Amino acid sequence: MPAVPLAPSRPGQSIFAWIASLPIARFLPWAASQDAQGEPPLAGSQNPPDTPAQPRQAEGPETSPDLPPADDNGGHDSGHDSGRTMALALAALGVVYGDIGTSPLYAVRECFHGQHAIALLPGNIMGVLSLIVWSLLVVVSLKYVMFIMRANNKGEGGIFALLALVQAGTKDKSGRGYTVLVTLAIFGAALLYGDGIITPAISVLSAMEGLDVATDQAAPFILPGTCLILIVLFRMQKHGTEKIGKVFGPLMVAWFTVLAGLGVAAIINRPDVLAAVNPVYAYRFFLANHLHGLVVLGSVVLCITGGEALYADMGHFGSRPIRLSWYAMVLPSLLLNYFGQGALLLEHPDKAFNPFYALVPHVMLYPMVALATMATVIASQAMISGVYSLTQQAMQLGYCPRIHIVNTSAETKGQIYLPGINNAMMVACLGLVLAFKSSTNLAGAYGIAVTATMGITSIIYFYVVHTLWRWSYWKTIPLIVLFLVFDVTYLGANLLKILDGGWFTLTVAGVIMLAIVTWRDGKQALGKKYAAMGLPINLFLESLVATDRPMRTPGTAVFMSVSATGTPITLLHHYKHNKMLHELIILLSVVSAETPFVPEHSRLEVTSLGHGFFRIIARYGFMQTPSVPEIMRLARAHGLDVEMESTSFYLGRETLLTGGDARIAGWRKSLFAFMSRNAWNATTFFGIPPGRVVELGAQVEL
Questions:
Q1: Distances (CA, A) of 553 to 317, 482, 558
Q2: What's the CA dihedral at 160, 398, 671, 506 to 10 degrees?
Q3: Angle 670-675-677 (CA atoms, 0-180°, nearest 5)?
Q4: Dihedral angle, C-alpha 389, 392, 398, 403, nearest 10 °
Q5: Is residue 486 situated within a structural domain?
Q6: What is the distance between the alpha carbons of residues 162 and 595, in angstroms, rounded to a whole number?
Q7: Which one, of 293, 379, 299, 360, lies nearest residue 94 by Cα?
């Protein structure tokens, strides 16, 4: 990977690429990018070039393990490619920053208006602004943009990508520490589901509440209008987001430009508000308000919602375009708007009921409501798509049963639609809006999901940098302590609002985590049962030679098996009842790799077992959907000329009985059996032609 200069090397080189390279992390000895030194990245954690998600090769020499992986600056931001970086940065505005970009709609308001509002005193206003400024700088700019985004799994981010990185780098998976990390990661993923449900509800509802500022007569239409927009949003998902995504970026450019303009107009009247950048104001705020100040901190955290999306969506754009968007557009616009709202409150404390819309000239209120609604729809779309991707990763990692996936684009990877998940989210969002009735009431439910996930990410990140990258304690502890001071403080503040709505997030996360853990444990128990029922393949082949050779019929039979060793149960049942075998027998196992993408040239492992038997192990990354037709096509390169039209595929369909001796509670066995019965059928999931499938049933006691 070629070295990347820290500043433009010639006038024609993109100045924006240079802006993205400015973070101080480049000058810290333990965070400096490897490719700035001209060395290859750490194997197992390398970042891709700044291109949309696609299969990436994981090849290349290893470097010293005590250094972090290279940032994904390699090659694609040299002068001639700066235009592509700009295009990706624009696209990132519409996907990555929708959530955090719409936080000004409600973050400041929740601090000074509502059940836990703080007194509208100048010191409090400056203190809250100082907290917002330093939250954006430390939590988002320092933690996520500079550091967390470096802990990627071959360019992919997110809680499951981080977990896969830990799994790939940990040899001993039986220790208590590893179990705790996996449990935390699963809980963090479950919290993100809650976040994905709350974000559309609170974002669209807060935008529609601008109508109440324009005229009191609009109040009865806020809830119905919000529900209508949410229904339309979720019903449109089946058409895919590729076409509408092309206008997301320009719309968000307009949104952030308006945010900055409104803020500047207010700051001109009270330029002294800029002094809030001094953290002393935050210190004085807590000194004056004590416990009440901690409660208000639970509202301040709303300004950094969406920070996790920076990490989760980096695989779609690469880290450089995301950083470019943050430093060149998003961060300045957010800071200016928050300072503008603070300036407005210093002049007009009576407008605390909705300071964002109070910044807007009255004649522009309706257009602003329309623009804000479009921005919140974009933010909601980003979270909905994020839940789809999270679910796909969970399926590939073995934490979720098969769910119907519809690929909505033949050209763009990651454009998927999950009908069942979509409908469940729509019902949950509508229920939230009708139950909580205002974005203020929803704010209490929102903060816990965000802060708990951020804290979990910090803990797992500590494990990665210390254990996998081998950073010394003196390098890791100060950094992680700084992150956790913010994370734990924010989480503690939001725990005080459990009765105000936080219970909903914890309930959703608990239910989803229970389902994930039950499916994982049930699959492991089922695998052990199949292993006990199975027969080593060499013994099966020897038995064929020792006895009368079975009749072989023309054609190919593919027996799919969860285990990549032994004889598939379906093959044993088939031979027991039919006393015949096809001329060509393929034992196919689809294995999930702990990387996001597995390139085609290394996807298959084909082994000849003799007597016309072959074993194929197909490896797919957790961001890929397995395809049996694709596997058969790739098998031709290994000498297996398989035609789908003349091949029979044998699949097992087990009936689970819960009276066995598996060490799982009875009610969890019943839950696993229910999930298994309702999983999407393997024929459609793996893309097998239905007319070529033979299903063989079996009863298994767990």
A1: 51, 68, 14
A2: 0
A3: 95
A4: 140
A5: yes
A6: 10
A7: 379
Own/partner long-range contacts of 9-14 (Cβ < 8 Å, ≥24 apart): 9/79, 10/79, 12/79, 13/78, 13/79, 13/82, 14/77, 14/79, 14/82, 14/83, 14/85, 14/86
pTM: 0.78
- Contact predicate 195/228, CB 8 Å: no
Sign of CA dihedral 459, 462, 464, 466: negative
Name the CA dihedral angle for 348, 354, 355, 360, rounded to a multiple of 10 degrees.
Answer: -100
- Note whether 561 and 515 are same-domain residues: no
DSSP tag of 63: -
Q: What is the CATH number of the domain that holds 322?
A: 1.20.1740.10
Structural domain contains residue 689: yes
The answer on pLDDT for 29 being more than 60 is no
Question: Is 516 in the same domain as 543?
Answer: no
Q: Which residue did the predictor score with more confidence, 359 or 10?
A: 359
Say if CB 209 and CB 390 are below 8 A apart: no
The residue whose two tokens read 């990549």 is: 564
**322 Cβ contact list (under 8 Å, min separation 6):** 89, 92, 96, 145, 149, 310, 313, 314
State the Cα–Cα distance between residues 700 and 702, nearest whole angstrom: 6
Domain that includes residue 291, residue range: 87-521
In this model, does residue 28 exceed pLDDT 80? no
One domain, residues 567 and 448: no
CB-based contacts of 373, cutoff 8 Å, min separation 6? 204, 207, 208, 229
Q: Tell me whether strands 647-657 and 551-560 are parallel, antiparallel or unpaired.
A: parallel
Average pLDDT estimate for 421-430: 93
d(C-alpha 58, C-alpha 48), whole Å = 9
Q: Are strands 416-417 and 613-620 parallel, antiparallel or unpaired?
A: unpaired
**Does residue 585 share a domain with residue 481?**
no
pLDDT (tens digit, 9 = 90+) per residue, 305-320?
888 877 877 777 778 8
φ and ψ at 620, to 5 degrees? -125, 145
